[in-house]
Amino acid sequence: MAAFLLGAVLLIVQPHIVPSRPAVNSKAETSSQSVSRELLKKTSQKNDFKENIHSNGSCQQLPQTIIIGVRKGGTRALLEMLSLHPDIAAAESEVHFFDWEDHYGNGLQWYINQMPFSYPHQITVEKTPAYFTSPKVPERVYNMNQSMRLLLILRDPSERVLSDYTQVFYNHMQKHKPYPSIEQFLIKDGELNVDYKAINRSLYYIHMQNWLKYFSLDHIHIVDGDKLIKDPFPEIEKVERFLKLSPQINASNFYFNKTKGFYCLRDSGRERCLHESKGRAHPQVDTRLLEKLHEYFHEPNKKFFELVGRTFDWHSFVAS
């Protein structure tokens, strides 16, 4: 009786959205839930872990898949498209558990409390784009779950730099705050400013090297962000296969919105597009400056292609 009352209190305290569709009948607990439970027991200093279990059989569990980045690479679009699959339960907001010290210090109990309720057959996914470029994150994720499946969506590094600037620019405009032109960030003493953070985030091979210290390539699926924008279905099919999901998403789930200029989603007759903040026009940049940017990324991109064993159709890469 005491256990029942404790469970009821926990459910009241945790106001998370609970899946409405019926759970798949399963006698045995899934391996992912077993892993989550063991990890929580091991990492709880006071051994006071309490699971939030709903009466319909759903519960909050550690994610089995994380979208680790990259910032302005298309992570929100990827998550929204992946969420079309009935076996995906996605955290709504960016959790920043592994990269923010105050969050990480709260422990795994706090982390699991940020997750959606899901059924045993579902895969829980969280997305925090900053993970990819944060040095401490790969080891922390590995220590939590060595079997984690990671999704990384990348786009042309030069285009990503422009998108990075554009987001910060509009954030300042909405707050009626002035913001320097992109040229003021890209140029320093007449040369390309390689200390600009947006440029550093596009040095994919440096950050990828850090992740490969802990996870092999068969645990990291790289989504081509440029192709996802132009033709999303083939890229999502690859993600389904990587996550070992049944093929549930199909071409009819996507339609091109001529007004917005990009693909939107169709799910059970309901249509929706990404937030208006997505797909904003980039600032006009002098052609010579763009060429400098492309030239700068040429060698880093080659190193990245060699590292992951595949190439991408990016401006800065010229086949030899």
From TrEMBL:
Coiled coil spans: none
Catalytic activity: alpha-D-glucosaminyl-[heparan sulfate](n) + 3'-phosphoadenylyl sulfate = 3-sulfo-alpha-D-glucosaminyl-[heparan sulfate](n) + adenosine 3',5'-bisphosphate + H(+)
Catalytic residue list: 72 (for sulfotransferase activity)
Pfam families referenced in this protein's UniProt entry, alphabetically: Sulfotransfer_1
EC number: 2.8.2.-
Broad class of where this protein is predominantly found: Golgi
Keyword Glycoprotein: yes
A single Gene Ontology CC term: Golgi lumen
Catalytic EC class: transferase
Domain of life assignment: Eukaryota
Subcellular location: Golgi apparatus lumen
Residue ranges annotated for the Sulfotransferase domain, each copy included: 63-302
Signal peptide location: 1-20
Keyword hit for Transferase: yes
Disulphides: 264-273
Gene Ontology molecular-function annotations: [heparan sulfate]-glucosamine 3-sulfotransferase activity
GO biological process assignments: glycosaminoglycan biosynthetic process
UniProt entry keywords in alphabetical sequence: Disulfide bond, Glycoprotein, Golgi apparatus, Signal, Transferase
Role summary: Sulfotransferase that utilizes 3'-phospho-5'-adenylyl sulfate (PAPS) to catalyze the transfer of a sulfo group to position 3 of glucosamine residues in heparan. Catalyzes the rate limiting step in the biosynthesis of heparan sulfate (HSact). This modification is a crucial step in the biosynthesis of anticoagulant heparan sulfate as it completes the structure of the antithrombin pentasaccharide binding site.
Membership in a protein family: Belongs to the sulfotransferase 1 family.
Protein name: Sulfotransferase
